[in-house]
Specification:
The protein is mainly α. The relative contact order is 0.06. Among the domains are: about 30 residues, no CATH class; about 120 residues; about 55 residues. The chain contains 8 helices and 2 strands. A hairpin with a 2-residue loop joins strand 1 and strand 2. Helix content is about 65%, strand content about 10%. This is Protein transporter Sec31.
């Protein structure tokens, strides 16, 4: 039986000068070696082979179509454009892999990939025809087809097909989560729009519509609870700024900072700090 050496660690007591502490002890031991996973080795080889095929196809197609396009345009531009032919079906296969658990959406990527492959093979064949080497063009066109076939086989090796009921369960869970994800940008857009509306209303001096939807349920000055600051004119809560609330309290004859703070907090509906109120009061005293 084959074995392999591994390092094992454990805590052991160690005493120095009568003081014992737990320290880490390391030892090398022999354990049975697991059998070689040939399936994983073959799977890795298939994947590596598919990558090599796709890389070779991309290089060949770019060189062939680039040489064809270079007859009518700059070589740098021609070869850059030639990359798009194989890159298109390679990208479609990447999308197909990402959507492997969503067959309905993956079908569109699969169909687009085959069409892109056909266009790429036709362009390589056209290059051979123009060069007077139609056999070379036909054989060269098969390079992209072989590369896509190899990559398709690699995807089948890694795929995990779902039965119909499990697929329905996955679709239901995905739809619920996708709905929540879709609401994130929607909420962000609505909040951004509401902020613009509020800013426009403040700039034009139009009262903001932040009250209750039921007009009869809104508080009136008569319904406000009585407080020691009965000489202060009622201020509509949540619709004024801190500066406006301080100014209203000042105009009502209130000079005590603590009383002004209570009035401002009631008017704005916010936990306004004392420092902000004091700053506005100092400005009013200077201008008085």
């Amino acid at each position: 039986m084959k074995t392999r050496t591994i390092e094992r660690t454990r805590l052991v007591p160690h005493t120095v000068d009568g003081e014992t502490e737990m320290v880490l002890h390391r030892e090398m031991i022999e354990v049975p070696a697991p059998p070689r996973d040939w399936d994983q080795l073959v799977r890795t080889a298939v994947t590596a082979g598919a990558v090599i095929l796709v890389t070779a196809s991309l290089a060949w197609t770019t060189a062939s179509i680039g040489d064809l396009l270079a007859t009518v345009t700059l070589p740098a531009v021609a070869y850059a454009a030639a990359v798009a032919f194989d890159a298109s079906w390679i990208m479609c296969m990447g999308v197909e892999w990402l959507l492997r658990y969503d067959p309905a959406r993956a079908k569109a990527a699969r169909t687009a990939g085959w069409w892109a492959l056909a266009v790429s093979m036709a362009a390589v064949g056209a290059h051979g025809y123009v060069a007077g080497q139609w056999v070379v063009g036909a054989v060269g066109a098969l390079v992209s087809g072989l590369a896509k076939g190899g990559w398709s086989m690699a995807m089948r090796v890694h795929a995990r097909p779902l039965d119909d009921r499990t697929q329905q369960w996955v679709n239901a869970r995905r739809a619920r989560l996708d709905g929540r994800l879709a609401m994130i940008p929607i909420h962000r857009e609505l909040q951004r729009g509401q902020a613009l509306v509020d800013a426009e209303q403040r700039a034009l001096g139009v009262p903001e519509e932040n009250g209750s939807a039921d007009p009869g349920s809104s508080a009136t000055p008569d319904a406000l609870p009585q407080s020691p600051d009965s000489t202060v004119s009622p201020i509509r809560t949540g619709r004024v700024t801190t500066q406006e609330a301080v100014r209203a309290a000042w105009d009502s004859g209130i000079r005590d900072p603590e009383t002004v703070l209570r009035t401002v907090r009631t008017a704005t509906g916010k936990d306004v700090p004392q420092s902000s109120v004091d700053r506005y009061l100092r400005a009013l005293r200077v201008g008085a």
